[in-house]
Write a structure and sequence with these properties.
- The protein has about 170 residues and is α/β, with parallel strands linked by helices.
- About 25% of the residues lie in helices and about 20% in strands.
- A six-stranded mixed sheet has the order 1-5-6-4-2-3, with helices on one face.
- Strand 5 and strand 6 form a beta hairpin.
- The longest helix has 16 residues.
- It binds zinc ion (ZN).
- The site of zinc ion has 4 residues, from helix 2.
Length: about 170
């Protein structure tokens, strides 16, 4: 029987809620180098305070055709817990690189106000599907603005998850 190596990759996340400015260039998607081998991506919400916002965040990515499914028994989890400094953080478990096996998202609800939680969780789910923060500064991805999904996120989806993974082909 094979022994499976599981690496834990921590992806720190800060609030990047900067105003979108016209002179800022479009984003080049930046990837962690890992992606999911199959969908739907199942996740469990461990703290009820984040349940509705987690559903909204998953729905944002579902609107781009990526399949998320809430499942109380899932090994990928979303927690409301203090982090110390940053407002939210995502950990990825990598099994058989380059494939993502599970994720853990922790959000400090004493730092992130209720009105921002769904968008921040959508940003964290971006990490959970394999996206990094763009560099340099750019204007049209939730991985920079943490506000909503933008056309840059559509381009990232197209590169990370070509058609077998997508249930339909929406556009922004
Ligand atoms: Zn981040």
């Amino acid at each position: 029987m094979k022994t499976l190596a599981v690496a834990i990759l921590a992806v720190a996340s800060l609030m990047l809620a900067l105003p979108v400015q016209a002179e800022v260039p479009p984003c080049q998607p930046t990837f962690s180098g890992y992606s999911w081998a199959q969908m739907p991506i199942r996740y469990a919400v461990k703290d009820a305070i984040l349940r509705d916002d987690s559903r909204r965040a998953a729905e944002m990515w579902r609107s781009l055709g990526l399949q998320f499914q809430e499942d109380p028994a899932a090994i990928s989890t979303i927690w409301a817990s203090p982090i110390g400094g940053s407002g939210a953080v995502t950990y990825l478990a990598i099994q058989h690189p380059p494939h993502i096996f599970a994720f853990t998202i922790r959000m400090d609800t004493t730092v992130i106000p209720p009105s921002e939680r769904a968008a921040v969780l959508a940003h964290e789910l971006g990490h959970a599907i394999g996206l990094d923060h763009p560099n340099p500064i750019c204007s049209d991805t939730i991985m920079w603005t943490a506000l909503k999904l933008f056309p840059g996120d559509l381009r990232a989806r197209d590169q990370l998850y070509p058609s077998p993974f997508r249930i339909f082909l929406p556009s922004l």
